[in-house]
């Protein structure tokens, strides 16, 4: 999730759609919108991928609004209870909500940028304890599929993890599993 | 690197056990041996029944060949550990246990359980200790920020288990918070 041009995480994070409104007419590029128009007219709205937007904004060809994964509705839900929001449904199951948020913070102006950063950090911290909790629980279960007493809430949470959270979950689970296996191993049979 | 992602940032439990095996424990040898010189030091002479301090790896070796009896370390007895357990459950900080208590206790319970007093109860107290400390680690995680997280008195095995997760989480946090500095330039 770096700013590096070649970072795969950054490329994947940018692969989200942002609603934009064009300010000028653009001849012969109507196919970009998927419609049958020959030209793009001024003030027509379309969903464009995020990596197109910096160029359009700099050259003042279009205006963009805050994309849906970071709308006020989502922020209110996160404020209420961060662990119950399904981040994966906002950006698709392979998506990177935190990565996308970071990219947006770079292009928007100051007071909103700080707000969004705070939202990202707070959400991450709130969900972190649950990720660790679940990972250790599942690490301890070994190869059993599904959690016995875990129930629906645990599964919903795990499904709602975004890409970066899933990586952390896998790390914690692997180390918990290794430690547990070590505790149960015995050296007596070695000799 | 051909290592899987989770093994890149920490040691395996077996490696920690290996490192912990350098710790000295006391044994009562049952056979007579002269002084032996190893790279790590000179041990012995071993006369029957007298206490000798040797590294854990040597104690394990002799025990498996039935050439000694192990004397449990000061902290590996039921009352001490039960005290620590009640301390653990009553106060929010971690209690003071030897840094490598998990590895040493596991090896001794495994190899030399007949030299220990009530090994089954010891096992269950150790397990309770481990779970209480794990719960505290999770609580301590709430205080994380991208600069530092202080959890004093954590043991080697516990640190090792948490390390990949903690380091990953702090990395992500530092990337998220770096954005505020960048935009104010």
From TrEMBL, chain A:
Domain DNA replication complex GINS protein PSF3 N-terminal: where?
Answer: 6-57
Q: Which domain of life is it from?
A: Eukaryota
Q: Which GO terms describe its cellular component?
A: GINS complex
What InterPro entries would the database entry show?
A: GINS_A (IPR021151), GINS_bundle-like_dom_sf (IPR036224), GINS_Psf3 (IPR010492), GINS_Psf3_sf (IPR038437), PSF3_N (IPR055221)
Pfam families per the UniProt record, alphabetical: PSF3_N, Sld5
**Domain GINS subunit stretches:** 70-183
Q: Where in the cell is it found?
A: Nucleus
What role does this protein play?
The GINS complex plays an essential role in the initiation of DNA replication.
Assembly and binders: Component of the GINS complex.
Q: Which protein is depicted?
A: DNA replication complex GINS protein PSF3
**Annotated organism of origin:** Schizopora paradoxa
From TrEMBL, chain B:
Cellular component, GO, one term: GINS complex
Domain DNA replication complex GINS protein PSF2 N-terminal positions: 12-71
Give the family this protein belongs to, as stated in its UniProt record.
Answer: Belongs to the GINS2/PSF2 family.
Instruction: Please give one Pfam family short name.
Output: Sld5
- Provenance organism: Schizopora paradoxa
Tell me where in this chain the GINS subunit domain is found: 75-176
**Can you say what this protein is called?**
DNA replication complex GINS protein PSF2
InterPro entries in the record:
GINS_A, GINS_bundle-like_dom_sf, GINS_Psf2, PSF2_N
Sorted keywords for this record are:
Chromosome partition, DNA replication, Nucleus
């Amino acid at each position: 999730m770096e700013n590096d041009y070649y970072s795969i995480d950054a490329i994947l994070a940018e692969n989200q759609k942002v609603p934009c409104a064009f300010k000028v007419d653009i001849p012969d590029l109507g196919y970009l919108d998927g419609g049958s128009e020959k030209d793009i007219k001024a003030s027509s709205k379309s969903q464009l991928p995020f990596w197109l937007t910096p160029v359009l904004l700099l050259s003042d060809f279009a205006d963009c609004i805050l994309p849906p994964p970071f709308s006020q509705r989502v922020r209110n839900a996160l404020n209420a209870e961060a662990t119950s929001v399904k981040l994966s449904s906002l950006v698709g199951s392979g998506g990177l909500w935190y990565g996308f948020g970071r990219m947006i913070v770079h292009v928007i102006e100051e007071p909103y940028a700080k707000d969004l950063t705070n939202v990202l950090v707070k959400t991450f911290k709130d969900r972190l304890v649950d990720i660790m909790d679940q990972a250790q629980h599942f690490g301890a279960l070994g190869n059993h599929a599904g959690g016995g007493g875990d129930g629906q809430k645990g599964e919903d949470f795990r499904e709602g993890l975004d890409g970066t959270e899933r990586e952390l979950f896998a790390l914690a689970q692997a180390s918990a599993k290794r430690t547990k296996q070590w505790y149960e191993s015995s050296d007596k049979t070695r000799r | 690197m051909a290592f899987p992602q989770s093994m890149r940032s920490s040691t395996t439990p077996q490696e920690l056990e290996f490192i912990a095996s350098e710790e000295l424990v006391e044994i009562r040898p049952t056979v007579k041996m002269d002084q032996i010189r190893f790279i790590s030091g000179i041990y012995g002479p071993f006369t029957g029944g007298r206490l000798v301090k040797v590294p854990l790896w040597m104690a394990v070796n002799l025990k498996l060949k039935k050439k000694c009896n192990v004397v449990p370390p000061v902290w590996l007895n039921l009352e001490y550990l039960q005290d620590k357990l009640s301390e653990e459950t009553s106060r929010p900080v971690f209690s003071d246990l030897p840094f490598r208590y998990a590895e040493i206790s596991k090896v001794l319970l495994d190899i030399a359980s007949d030299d220990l007093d009530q090994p089954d109860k010891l096992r269950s107290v150790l397990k309770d200790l481990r779970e209480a400390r794990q719960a505290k680690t999770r609580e301590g995680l709430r205080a994380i920020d991208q600069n530092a997280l202080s959890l004093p008195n954590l043991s080697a095995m516990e640190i090792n288990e948490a390390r990949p997760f903690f380091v990953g989480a702090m990395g992500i946090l530092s990337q998220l918070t770096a954005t505020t500095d960048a935009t104010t330039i």
